[in-house]
Amino acid sequence: MMEGLVKVSIDINGKKYTDDVEPRLLLVDFIRDIARLKGTHIGCDTTSCGACTILIDGMSVKSCTMFAVEADGRKIQTVESLATDDKLHPLQEAFWEHHALQCGYCTPGMLMSSTFLLSRNSDPTEEEIREGIAGNICRCTGYINIIKAVKDAAGKINAGKETE
Amino acid sequence: MPQKAELVVEKAPETTAAFKYMGTPVKVAEDLIPLQGKGQYLDDVEIPGTLYMAYTLSPYGHAKIKKIDTSKCLELPGVHYVLTGEELKANMDPYMQIAPPPSGNLKDYPLAVDKVRYYGEPVAAVVASNAYIAEDAAELVDVEYEPLPVVTDAEDALKEGSPVLHDSVGNNLVWRGVWDLGDAEKALKEADYVVEDTVKTHRYAAVPLETSGVLATYDQSVDTITVYSVNQMPMFSLPIICGALRMPPSKFRMILPPNVGGAFGGKIINFTHITVVAYLSKLLKAPVKYVENRSENIMSGTHNNERIFHVKLAVRKDGRVTGAYMKAVDNCGAYPRYEPAGAVIWAQVVPGIYDVQNVYVDFSQATTNKGPTGPVRGYSRIQHNFMWERMMNRVAQKLNMDPAEVRRLNLIKAEQMPYEGPSRTIYDGGDYHKAFDTLLDTIEYGKWREKQKEARKQGKLIGIGLSAVIDSGANNFAQVKIINPHFPASGSMEVGLVMIDQFGTLVARTGTTDQGQSHATTFGQIVSEVFNTGPENVVFQQGFDSISNVWAAFSGAYASRSAVMAGTALYYAAIRLKEKVLTIAAHALGELESDLEAKDAAVVSMKTDKKLPLGDIATLAWLDVNKLPEDMEPGLVSYAVYKPDFTYNMPDEKKRVNNTLTYSYAIHGTVVEVDPETYEMKILKHGVVSDPGFMINPLVVEGQEMGATLHGISAALMENLEYDEDGILLTSNFWDYLVAGAKHMPDIDMKTIVTRSTSSVLGVRGVGEGGGGPIGSIVNAVEDALQPLGIKLLSSNLSANELYSKANKK
Lengths: 164, 810
Prior knowledge:
By secondary structure, chain A is of the alpha+beta class. In chain A, 35% of the residues lie in helices and 15% in strands. The radius of gyration of chain A is 16 Å and the shape is globular. Chain B is α+β, with helices and mostly antiparallel strands. Chain B folds into three domains: 3-23 and 493-642, 2-Layer Sandwich (Aldehyde Oxidoreductase, domain 4), CATH 3.30.365.10; 49-148, Aldehyde oxidase/xanthine dehydrogenase, a/b hammerhead (Aldehyde Oxidoreductase, domain 3, Alpha-Beta Complex), CATH 3.90.1170.50; 306-479 and 648-809, Aldehyde oxidase/xanthine dehydrogenase, molybdopterin binding domain (Aldehyde Oxidoreductase, domain 4, 2-Layer Sandwich), CATH 3.30.365. Chain B has 21 helices and 29 strands. Chain B has an eight-stranded mixed beta sheet. In chain B, strands 7-15-14-13-8 form a five-stranded mixed beta sheet. In chain B, strands 18-27-28-29 form a four-stranded mixed beta sheet, with helices on both faces. In chain B, helix 11 (342-345) links the parallel strand 14 (321-333) and strand 15 (359-367). The N and C termini of chain B lie far apart (64 Å).
């Protein structure tokens, strides 16, 4: 191991990625450059925009705010984990249905924040949705369609649970 | 266009009912890509062996560069090179200037030479083996500065004795021009009232969520630099860059990745980054990448023009405005990189939405020690629209009339359409009264006026504001000849290519570059319509590549032009291709062309029901070519360049020209409540009624209108690039430069009324830049709310702090 490097092993979307990294390597760069998962984006350097939002052990985190070494041994979910076997996640379906994206740059972060929100609150009010995505900036849509999509997805997920 | 295409225009159906694929809100197929994290944005493009670049930035607003010491920087392991302005100056020419001399003598390089002129200006470019080292190393470039006096205000910059930014110019004037249209002086003389005031627009930025970036690589084998960038007008930027680097455009390949993370005008003047990275990649014979960090994007990634207006309106006692006389001064920032185009682009909307034929404008633009300006959503028109909307309220106050009544009285009438404005802009249809009245109903204007009376009795501060924008689209470059008659550009053009591949799939491309406007779906609908074939048979290829794409020199997505320009080019290209397809089918089926029609990926005979799939026609055209009609050229490729007729194509001696093709419009209404203690502002209601013309995909058009509304609300209540007296930007990251989030965006009651554009082929209007609407309606509403306190507002940006101090000064 090169001097000063730290061995890090992170489970991302069910697959283990191990590498020797500088202690200052940001988690988002580990995800993008080492795991080569490019869906997680960088939109600012100040933890403000949320384009890099992921889930760590189920908690939403802005991955530009954490060092990769801090995520050692933990489980991460990125946007790439949402669709399974080419079947869209209900949130993705709803975002598509409501045209809740334009350039798509904020979308992965929006989806992960929304996933976290719905994991804690399966039937959020409009205000709770606004609160839930307050850390994610979208410059294109004006948010209204995103809020509708999250609401709609929550309804569909709940309806699905009832029929199960 | 050739005669054949002209005939098509006449055949274009008048009603949306006649369309099968256009005019419906189909879901946006390309949304599926970023939704799954599969998009490819600039920073996702990788080339092995790439080096990374970072800038050393100026900490001063204005200073002499006395010495640059790069030794410490070069000692850092991993550092490959440090580039300074001196080296660039020796190896490139300054960028061409739009303005004629003396301001055309200005020398603009992508790195500061001899002195810095704004806070955050790149001074050196450091190349290292990774981005982390590059950023560290950029901090190690030791620059010795000698601070110079700073000027940040445009009016101050034009005063005798002001610090001068560019010695080669001699003063700070970029350009001055006078529009003397109709007879404004006479109107003022004959007016019952002269309503006079000053209106100011503030500085904000485009800030797309993806910043600008460049990846350049030099290929020795063909002596070509390949550049991946996010530039909005790649083929317009190319000669600017190649002219400066003294190389032929054919040796400079411009590529845009399939996904661009928003632009809003803010990805045009990034040609400075492209120049530096391209230069370094050739010098170092290695791929070099640079991605702006957010602070760089905010400091220098395109600011909106600040403008101050001193206005006199000629008003009759019934409230009719008969003339306008104004002096306007525009703050360009340190370098005119697309400017002074903004000094004429406002003239697309000279009278706003009002019927005023006597307008005198004395317009100046000045350089100052602030970041460079350029196109930002609603470029240059937002300021002018805002001026009208503030002044209409002043007229209402003067005459003690309802601001809605004053507006209604002055609106251009539907029967005046198409309306020729005083500068010969031709407003292409619409019903402003209908839109206006629909808006009043939408926000329940009358009811809120009643509520306001009640609220005031209880000490509550509620206000109602109205505003309108002309959201002009598809610019005529000839307007730039007003600034410089020798500027070699006029008119507009865009290109469409439609082909059918060997298996019978329709493939389409244009020179426009999508930044989130859903081009693939929208343009696919046009091709579907012509071939009467579902979207599953149409592939629109996203992205741009100057060596394999079709392009025109003005290609790109800017000035709300894509649907109007590229849409029409594709429409023509598809019709031409269909003609060839029908000819081949007629030959193969032994039928008359006139008995055939394209339908569901085939050609069918209306007479005999015989059918030939596009796949079979493709086989004939591409492979089994001896079976083609005699003398027919093989292949199924069609190409059209659309060049619209603006009627008044070139400016006359009075600067009159129809400087854009379509004029969509939107009326906004806001109800606000201001907290009487904290002066926090809350939007209680916001309505928008717009007329985008025929909507190829209403889902997409409404999405654009909503996005523009967000930008306006954010600009009015949050976004502000605030400089101190030393020219230091106080708001250079997302903690200080606040943009609206989900909690700031009120519910929007949005309606569209549709009248076809009288000037565009498909009846569409360019849309998406009408973000100025909410700025006017919010400022008018807040001032209305504060009326009991007698507070008068000046600027287009409001903060609770500012209102509090105004209220407590009294």
